Amino acid sequence: MAAGLVLTSLGPAAVHATAPAVAPAPQAAAAPAGVSNIAPTTADATPPAAPASPLLARDGAPGGAILPGIGQPVNGVYGLQPQVTRNGEFAHWMHDVVLLPTITAISLFVLALLAWVVFRYRRAANPVPSKTSHNTTIEVLWTLLPVLALVLIAVPSIGLLQAQFKPAPAGAVTLKAIGNQWYWTYQYPDHGGFEITANLLKEKGEAAAGERSRTDADGPRLLATDNRIVLPVGVPIRLITTSNDVIHSWAVPAFWIKLDAIPGRLNETSFTIDKPGVYFGQCSELCGARHAYMPIAVEAVTPAQFAAWIAAKGGTMPARGQASDKVIPQPGAEGSAAKVAEGNTVDAATGPTENVTVAAPTAPQGATNNPATGNAGQ
């Protein structure tokens, strides 16, 4: 194991892009009061895309070109994917410059100690064992050295953790990702609230009649989706995740993002994509029989192309620098898209219900089966 770690730390030829030697700064924390913390959103610079732009094509049509080896796993290659966010670049540097050398040094040191003990204190060389029970120097060393190793790792990791969960600034693009068994639904609350559903694209021999099958322009097998989500480059993204059923996890390795989607809870993080391209990910939480068929495909485009795509979807661009003021309810809660659709269906069938008061049902206590008193159980 130690030898393998040494070889890994030396950096073989068939690896992903190497992290920079100098530590890149993680994403800065939110600005203090009195300092501008407004994201460079795009309401002032939104020229329409050309009519033939693939971003304005029908849902499911391939969009931007996929760069080989970027934003996706590569056969025969190991190591972290090239990172396109500041936090990802910092984490890549920390992995290659801090973690791997530390792990390698500890493994080699322990291996050398074991070899020395086996050789030095074997029965032939040490027929009469020592009865020494304490060694102050050794006890001090084996306490201080692990503390120093932990401090070496903790200093950069705490900064990275803080940067990963810093609040998004005003003007960030809000993307709500909702996990379902087994596909993703996306909403853009600040851009009209429209919704996109992304399903796995089947292979040519697996698609039913009338279904569109995957092509190389869509992406790799098991990662291509019928609808890509589109996000702007250089603009902070406010990612919110939740779920309609079980725990899922929205993970895109090139963004250094993995955020659980939990029923009844909204999780939030923020990131900024630095480079245009197409980036793929998957659900990273075991969520059922088709867990492996929940891909994520993100197309990062210029702010002007993003605005044109929003317009093509029937959405609207918010005012420049405007903070998100949209209520984002949990799936199934009052005000959620599902509840609104359910209410519209009922109203269409029976007409709207007005001024009706329904008494809350009285439920027995779960443990004792006694009738509830007061507001308990209601």
Structure description:
The protein is of the alpha+beta class. Helices cover 26% and strands 15% of the residues. The chain contains five helices and ten strands. It has helices at residues 2-10, 86-120, 136-164, 303-312, 337-350; strands spanning 173-180, 183-187, 195-198, 229-232, 237-243, 248-252, 257-261, 267-271, 277-283, 295-301. The chain has a five-stranded mixed β-sheet, with no helix packed on it. A hairpin with a 7-residue loop joins strand 2 (183-187) and strand 3. Helix 2 (86-120) runs antiparallel to helix 3. The longest helix is centred in the N-terminal third of the chain and has 35 residues, at 86-120.
Count of DSSP strands: 10
Helix content: 25-40%
The total count of helices amounts to 5
What would you call the structural class? Answer: alpha+beta
Task: Explain the layout of strands and helices.
Layout: H1 2-10, H2 86-120, H3 136-164, E1 173-180, E2 183-187, E3 195-198, E4 229-232, E5 237-243, E6 248-252, E7 257-261, E8 267-271, E9 277-283, E10 295-301, H4 303-312, H5 337-350
Parallel strand pairs: 1-5, 4-10
Antiparallel strand pairs: 1-2, 2-3, 5-8, 6-7, 6-9, 9-10
Helix pairs in contact: 1-2, 2-3
Signal peptide: 1-17
Family: Belongs to the cytochrome c oxidase subunit 2 family.
Main location: membrane
